[in-house]
Every structure is written in C-alpha cells, then in structure tokens.
Amino acid sequence: MWGLIKSLLVVGVLCASFLVAPVSFATSISPSVVDLSTLQGDTVNQIFYLFDEKNTPAQYTIELLNVDLGTNEDEMSFTPLSADLASMFDIGETVRFVQAKQVEPVNLTVNVPANIQSQTLVVGLKVTEVQGASSGINVQTGLISLIFITIGDNIDSSAQLLDFSSSKLVASQLPLTFRTTVRNSGQRILQPQGEITVRNMFGGLVSKYGVNEEKRRIPIGQERTYTNNWGDSVTGDGFISSLKNETKHFAIGFFKVELNLKPYAGGENITAVTNIFILPWRFLLVTTAVFALFYGVVRVLRNK
C-alpha cells in the first residue's frame, strides 16, 4: 500500500491487528480522506457514509484513533486517542446496526478548545464489522477514513524545494524523468501540487504535466520526491529500437523545463527552471545517410 500521509490518501485495510483469518468485508466508508480547517473555539461538522454492500445486515463499531504517519509512507500506525483529544470529538452511537444494501450516516462533530495551540491533527475514523458467531470464529475487519484537521490560521507552513532536476541534461532521446523533492519545514502537513511545463527554444509549449497528481502529503519534518516522465519508455535494446524511439518522439535542441508548485492550497508559489539539450544523433545519422545515398544516385543517373 502506498502509505497514507497528510500527503496521501486511501482507505486502509488493517490486517495485522484486526484480521485472524480472511473474511469478506463488503462494506465501504466515504469519504476516505477529509481535510478540515477550523479556528480555536470553533465547532466543525463532517458527515461520513457507511455503505453495507452485502446481502445481509451487519453490526459495526465506530471509534476514533490517533494516526501516526511515521517517517516513511508505509509506516502509518494507529493508537487510541488521549483523553484530552477524545473530549474534542463526538460521533454519536458507537455501535451501528445497518440493514443490507443500506447507507448509515455517521456525523462527526469537532469541538475545538479555545486554548489549543495551532497545529494539524491526524485522526482515523475506524469502522469495524463484528462477524457473527455462525462463521465459526469472531473476526473483526476494520476500515479507516483519515481526517486531517488544521487548527488556527497562523501555522508555520514553510516548505523547501530541495531538488528540481532532469534525469539527463544532455540526451539523445526521450524519455526523461523530472524529479521534484520538497521538504516540509513548517508545522502543518503539506500537500504540494502544481505543474511542469516543457518549452522549446522558441518558447512554444511542448508538454505539460501535473505534479503530485496522486495527492501525496508530506508530514512535518519530512520530504517527498515526485516524478514525472516526458515521453514513453524505450521498448527493446540496440540501435534500431532507439532509432524508432527518436523518430516516434522526435525532439531536438534546447528545452526549458519550468516548475510551478504550491506546497498547499492557497500557499505561495514555488518556481524553478532547468534546461536540457536533446540531440537525436541516430535519427540525424540515418537521415544524413539516406540523403547522401539519394544524392549519389541522382548524380550517377544524371551523368549517364
């Protein structure tokens, strides 16, 4: 699983802690990821929807967990909320009985204390299906919906662009890989998004790519690298395969590659530029050889 962070974000199936044996869990919760912004002393509400997609009714328990995003994207872990944090949240009934093919709304209310410091909280709404005794064993399967709560309007949102580069500055053919590395040096979880544009030596737009279209997030004090590929991978090895690629994805000359990136929605724009040079020598060699051969044949025919 691609780790869920306040820079990613999908429904996680908690296997190690909650599964004893494989069990069908034909249920989903929506939305799977939520961003909430609020101020000290305010109250914010969010509705989640629990879908029972099976042909039989089921019982579910609902609870909130603290989410530790870890140092890597695959190290997310869950622990019980502290008493202070738990007092901020209200989810109503924690045990729900849902009829088959029905939808159960779950209303989350967040009461933000007036004296809490500005910060970003990451909480998981865990829905657990309690299997019936008829299955032979009592097995629980859990789904997590991630909730990112940004509290306050004076949070340090600093971000550093550590690297924006191309896999090659001088190349004979595509593809080229552009790497964008961003570090979160502030106090809020970041979700960088932006675009990379490629322009030829005359300023014409050649290609454009979205950065972090997967919406991966960067926890505080960490960094993430986002990649974009210009062109398709070469199929096969050797001169002929490279020649075909140079012909199919023809590019020649100097190109300006520009990055425009916002570390979070509404954040200040980060820009960077790198320049590359592409010389498709195989294509030029064959083209020159064909032209020379054609020219030679014409001269011979004219001299007859």
From TrEMBL:
<feature type="signal peptide">
    <location>
        <begin position="1"/>
        <end position="26"/>
    </location>
</feature>
<keyword id="KW-0812">Transmembrane</keyword>
<feature type="transmembrane region" description="Helical">
    <location>
        <begin position="279"/>
        <end position="298"/>
    </location>
</feature>
<keyword id="KW-0472">Membrane</keyword>
<keyword id="KW-0732">Signal</keyword>
<protein>
    <recommendedName>
        <fullName>DUF916 domain-containing protein</fullName>
    </recommendedName>
</protein>
<keyword id="KW-1133">Transmembrane helix</keyword>
